[in-house]
Fold this sequence. Notes:
The complex is a heterodimer.
Chain A lengths: L5 E9 L2 H25 L5 H9 L9 E6 L3 E4 L8 H8 L4 E4 L7 E3 L3 E7 L9 H17 L6 E2 L5 E3 L2 E11 L2 E9 L19 E2 L2 H5 L5 H16 L2 E3 L2
Parallel strand pairs in A: 1-2, 1-12, 3-4, 9-11
Antiparallel strand pairs in A: 2-6, 3-5, 6-10, 7-8, 8-9, 9-10
Helix pairs in contact in A: 4-6
Chain B lengths: L1 H12 L3 E2 L4 E6 L2 E6 L1 H7 L2 E5 L6 E2 L4 E7 L2 E6 L4 E6 L2 H4 L3 H4 L8 E5 L9 E2 H8 L3
Antiparallel strand pairs in B: 1-2, 1-10, 2-3, 3-9, 4-6, 5-8, 6-7, 8-9
Amino acid sequence: MATQRVVQLVRLGRMPYGTTLKIQNELVQRHLETREQSVSATMGKSSEFQQQLKLKNEHDEILDKLILVEHEPVYTIGKRTKEYTIEERQRLEALGADFYKTNRGGLITYHGPGQLVAYPILNLANYKRSINWYMCTLTKTIIGTCRQFNIEASSSSDVGVWVGNNKICAMGVHASRFITMHGIALNCNTDMTWFNHIVPCGLVGKGVTSISQELNQNVTIEDAEGPFLKSFSDSFKCEIVEM
Amino acid sequence: MINRSISSTNRLLGARVYAESHEWVLMNENTATVGISDHAQGMLGDVVFVDLPEVGDTAEAGNACATVESVKAASDIYAPVSGEIVEVNTALENEPSLINTSPLDNGWLFKVKVQDGEQLSELKSEDQYLATIEDE
């Protein structure tokens, strides 16, 4: 490959869900604008030039981002809204959590303190134009992260990453012209009682777990970040650069 | 322009034409049936949910107007032509997997009453489309 894939790391720290959603939308928009400009600007130019433009915009900004964030307690649902009523929403908000309907795939999930949330904003044209491939690669990233903690995790037909019958990492994404948003939520030392109020991802009879629970010791987001970034860089074959 | 003459011929022959974003269009008089290509359904994986526009909505060429969900991923589908949505494939509500099993026939998404036939000249013939996905 002529051009090295590069992804810029964006650490947001602790931030409410709604603010992060705006940032994601803004970064997706930058991709789409650059894409439109490059379609007209690269007519007749070499393919290497086109490749450059996909990676960076006119301000030499790296467009592919990897957002890391920790949310305040929030329940979110995806495109499939049928089974979630106003009463259900009010019940969850009464627990002290926010509630958002989003454009991602998947059903209800919880985000909150102690959970490593990662939102890759990638143009899959720089990788492989397949959402199926993308989800498999995200899954590999999490399995590889768990392995560094000596946790044997696996994928399943229900998507997400599992330790036995318990989900350790939820996944849900949106793609628009192969630009991705939303992403993964890996439980590090999450207060797991928040999950008792919902059927995570609509899967009846399955449980949830965290890295801390599996190892029976406190593992923080900060502990998990390094292993996650290493695994992401290995699975996506990209270089991750700090801002 | 060569492209235009190929597309016009296809339109007359009732052959599918394709958008760069992997949707196909099949014309019947001035109504366009829209679906996604076999290549696209393969790249999505098993479809579990389809969010369709409503009859009476206005589709704008190049704008997102439906979503398909596969493997916990929601992907936007773009209208290849502009016009009023006159029919949607309600069979997909109960059987979204039709998109995987029959992307070019029973898995069609919606029908658009086309305002501007010129937009069809922007689309590719099946051969042209297949050539563009070869190196992906």
